[in-house]
């Protein structure tokens, strides 16, 4: 009987002085606090039997993966399927000025929250993330793999694994900064899911992807 675990790690806090929704924009790096969060995630996984580390190509994910890979003497593999979801509001301060939902130019993108119409479809995210998890599980068969990605793709993966509807309230996502969502497989079949927040002590005052305070 073979047991394999795939850990889904969300990146740490991002340096975002403009408090915009940065999405797929290049160059957004971890803040100083985000770097400390990444180290805590690495400490949390230090005793795990990690043989494979793969990350989204975006800088913040690569920086979060770095201390995890280093702790296990591994190179980071990059997988485009792990990238953040696209969003019409990218580059804007959501709820303020040009990013205000009251702005008529945004209304055509708000007609279908079930898809959602403002960004990449949930089903599209599910398909690419499930495929990436499958490949990571195979690469680490009998051991553990780490995937570093972004909040929404990770949450969609968990909803899919738990056979729950992909449509959800964003305020109810259980996917904090540098959190670890672990998928435990036995002989290739999902047996259990666990969740940890090794960087929770650094959450007070931290800023999320839309520029809002976490607490």
UniProtKB/TrEMBL annotation:
Top-rank taxon: Bacteria
- A Pfam family hit: His_Phos_1
Q: What is the protein name given in its UniProt record?
A: Histidine phosphatase family protein
